[in-house]
Amino acid sequence: MRAGNTPSHLNLETFPTTTGPVLDTSELPGLPRLNYNLWDYKIKLSIVTFLLVLESSLIPLALFYGLWFRTTLRHGIIFAIITAFFGLVTGIEFGLRSLKLILPPDTYRPIGGKRWKADFTHWTLSFGYTYMTGILIGASIPHEPLVRPLAIPVPLFMIQLGLMLIATGYMNARHKPTWCKMSSVPKGERTRPLVYTIVEDIIAVDGAAGLEYRRAFMARYEVSKLFRKMIAKQNWFWGWGSLLVGIGTMVVIWTVQQEIAYGIGWGVPLVWTIIWIVVTVIWVRRDLRHEKEQWARDAMSSVSNINIGEQNGVAAAT
Question: Do 63 and 81 touch, CB atoms closer than 8 A?
Fold first, then answer.
């Protein structure tokens, strides 16, 4: 079923899907509700976001410039201190989401997922954290640390994420099958944009929405053409943005003075992320509003056509 092709006989309260139990769709006939509002978790979201910003940008920058220019500490010790803080918040959050995924109930695991197999986002982050930590440790070992390599972990992760987003976007556009199970999408099915997978995993696990949200999110994606278009557009937006900004930041890091390069490497990704999030929130709200308005118009049009057909049938019979 697609938006714009909604049967008039759909019950206004429930809509059975092939991806799980009956879903509440009282908001609009046939359009599965996601039943998740980020504002209900604004306190937790604000705290976690603040801690992540501290860890991924503010603390490295404050410690580097404060200790580099204001103290006589050996440079190796300075970076040892900075590296000790890296991964503190994300490590705790990573450990918590690991527990959620392996606990006996399948509350947070992907649809059809197994207990000892993490979701796709978990593996993506694991790969990124591994080489980022390796770079920070390896470049800090020399007596005089390698400042430029120590500035590249976040831009490098942006390049990795951008390439993955673009690759899955291309595979989706070309109707290519997945090479492996991508969270709730089985291996061999049409690849979905990585943005779809990231949103599903983050809200289901880190946002504690669970398996119910995964089913509702999948059902919404399957029935709504406009929802799929929105996901695809956000995938390209974040994919190309992440890739180009990551590459541009890397180029600048290797062409300016090393003290400036460190600030570029840890500061630019934060500024870019804030801008992209603001644009995304405005964009997604507009698209979701348009989706609901179009779905309601299509439903009303379908009902009108059925009524006209019934009237014509009655007139012909008499």
Answer: yes
- What's the pTM? 0.83
- Is the C-alpha dihedral spanning 210, 216, 222, 224 positive or negative? negative
The CA distance from 280 to 288, in Å, is: 12
Q: C-alpha distances in angstroms, 237 versus 199, 243, 265, 271?
A: 15, 10, 21, 16
pLDDT, tens digit, for every residue of 92-148? 888 888 888 888 888 889 998 887 788 999 999 999 999 999 999 999 999 999 999
d(CA 286, CA 223) in angstroms, rounded, equals 19
CA separation, residue 206 to residues 50, 99, 165, 280 (Å): 15, 11, 20, 20
pLDDT in tens, 250-270: 999 999 999 999 999 999 999
Q: How far is CA 92 from CA 87, 88, 206, in A?
A: 8, 6, 12
Q: DSSP letters of 134-173?
A: HHHHHHHSSSS--HHHHT-HHHHHHHHHHHHHHHHHHHHH
Stretch (H or E) spanning 275: helix 258-317
Distances in whole angstroms, Cα of residue 290 to Cα of each of 112, 156, 224, 226, 286: 32, 36, 12, 8, 6
Q: For residues 239 and 166, is the Cβ–Cβ distance under 8 A? A: yes
As given in the structure block, the two tokens for residue 15 are 């809509």
- Count of alpha carbons within 13 Å of 98, Cβ hemisphere only? 9
Work out the angle between the directed axes of helices 88-102 and 120-140 (0-180°, nearest 10). Answer: 150
Q: Which two tokens stand for residue 30?
A: 């046939």
Place of tokens 């603040």: 50
